[in-house]
């Protein structure tokens, strides 16, 4: 079977990580199917059953992306003659001769209810475009797709509600995760006066909540504590902006510090899962994605991500050792080989097209 994989949107961050993870899996484990990756650059290497087709102009503007989605489908089908189309960029192709399409939907911004971004605010404009403009096309795509794959149940429920699609066409497949890298912490190593937040500087990562909580705790100068952030900028007595650190360093910090997670938009929230497996204390935003991962975890404390005072109270309890590490009864063990499940869906949809 020939699979046309569409992911011109992937170039950095989580989208590229997902693409590379899928590529690595099929390169190592799936020799029976042929894959053509349609990308915006040569991020992957070809081999006997993997071909790369690059369209570098697609990412130059939103208009180019729309033209690609609406007009390139027929061209690519005539060129490659696929049995099924797998879109890893949240949207489908149009004009595809009834070839079945599977969408891997991993953009949660249009489906969350916690924040309405303002297109008139220059800091929020890009996210507002994703929420309203691109979100419109994503919802349209998941309606027309033959099958939709999402990573978490909260996203599945939100997509069903907002896109008004039948529950039978959408599957939740939790992403692959390397559990072998994880070693647990214990009370001996954990300093509850030190806090850690591994996140980039997007608005929805919500560093502002941490800054405001630190200001609250600083009043009276009666608490000794330190917050470590993976963003750039000037550090202060209480905040250490250490910039980007690699994954090993992230794990080291999680073992010795309390994780703060004020982000209010995530699909999965990978640091929450990692911190849970490490067994550290977590102060997490009261959001659907946090609850999906952490509701069965003994060492989590939730706060309103738009109320810095709630976070400050929890931080103070950690500093005063009113919150201490509890014994963990079990670890989360999600099913592995998620890409194997995805490939099964692609095979099913490809066979349906062959029968037609």
From TrEMBL:
GO biological process terms, semicolon-separated: lipopolysaccharide biosynthetic process
UniProt keywords, alphabetically: Transferase
InterPro entries the record matches: Glyco_trans_1 (IPR001296)
GO MF assignments: glycosyltransferase activity
Pfam families, sorted: Glycos_transf_1
Ranges where the Glycosyl transferase family domain occurs: 237-322
Coiled-coil annotated spans: none
Record has RNA-binding as a keyword: no
UniProt keyword annotation of Zinc present: no
PANTHER family (alphabetical): GLYCOSYLTRANSFERASE WBBK-RELATED
Name used for this protein in its record: Glycosyl transferase family 1 domain-containing protein
UniProt source species: Thomasclavelia spiroformis
Lineage: Bacteria, Bacillati, Bacillota, Erysipelotrichia, Erysipelotrichales
């Amino acid at each position: 079977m020939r699979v046309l994989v569409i992911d011109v949107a992937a170039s950095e961050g989580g989208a590229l990580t997902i693409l590379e993870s899928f590529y690595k899996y099929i390169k190592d484990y799936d020799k029976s199917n042929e894959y053509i990756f349609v990308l915006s650059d040569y991020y992957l290497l070809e081999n006997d059953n993997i071909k790369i087709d690059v369209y570098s102009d697609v990412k130059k503007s939103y208009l180019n992306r729309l033209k690609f989605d609406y007009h390139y489908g027929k061209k690519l089908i005539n060129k490659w003659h696929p049995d099924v189309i797998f879109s890893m960029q949240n949207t489908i192709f149009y004009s595809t001769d009834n070839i079945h399409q599977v969408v891997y939907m991993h953009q949660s911004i249009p489906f969350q209810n916690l924040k309405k971004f303002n297109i008139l605010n220059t800091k929020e404009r890009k996210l507002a475009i994703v929420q309203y403009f691109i979100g419109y096309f994503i919802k349209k795509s998941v309606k027309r797709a033959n099958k939709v794959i999402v990573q978490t149940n909260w996203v599945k429920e939100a997509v069903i509600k907002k896109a008004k699609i039948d529950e039978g066409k959408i599957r939740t497949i939790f992403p692959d995760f390397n559990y072998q890298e994880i070693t647990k912490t214990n009370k001996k190593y954990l300093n509850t006066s030190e806090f850690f937040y591994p996140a980039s500087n997007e608005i929805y990562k919500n560093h502002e909540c941490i800054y405001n909580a630190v200001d609250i705790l600083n009043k009276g100068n009666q608490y000794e504590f330190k917050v470590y952030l993976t963003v750039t900028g000037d550090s202060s007595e209480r905040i250490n902006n250490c910039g980007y650190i690699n994954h090993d360093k992230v794990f080291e910090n999680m073992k010795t510090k309390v994780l703060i997670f004020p982000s209010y938009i995530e699909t999965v929230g990978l640091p929450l899962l990692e911190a849970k497996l490490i067994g550290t204390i977590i102060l997490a935003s009261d959001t659907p994605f946090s609850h999906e991962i952490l509701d069965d975890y003994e060492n989590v404390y939730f706060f309103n991500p738009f109320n810095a005072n709630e976070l400050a109270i929890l931080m103070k309890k950690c500093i005063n050792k009113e919150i201490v590490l509890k014994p963990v009864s079990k670890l989360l063990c999600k099913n592995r080989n998620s890409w194997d499940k995805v490939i099964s869906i692609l095979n099913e949809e490809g066979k349906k097209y062959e029968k037609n």
